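Hey,
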Amino acid sequence: MSGNVATIIVKVNKACDGLNFVSARGLIETNLIKLSEAKYYRQLNTSGRVLIKHVLADSKNQNETSCKLTREDLFIINKINEYCSNFDISMLKRTLKNSFELMQRPDVQPLLNNDARIILDDMGALLGAYQLQ
């Protein structure tokens, strides 16, 4: 097994030296658990180490954001921003009635404009998910 890992390390180092980061990343992703061990990690060159850190961070981000916003969700957020800017409270309430759970997601909060943040916070629709500063 260690001979196999040694050949993978040599291939990753050669690929990084040759600026072939696509194949190096593929090798790292398939052998991520073994290459992230300290004794094998130290054998990688600088580019390989940076690449393995990048792959680990990318996999962490994918796990955290497994539920992405759909096109319909973005449309609803855009309409809420528009209703708040125009101060159309009746349409805002109708929209919030069907999409209240969407407003509680932490990835939606940065997409709201200032008017929407103020109005939704005053209405109690944000439930403390976004704190006004």
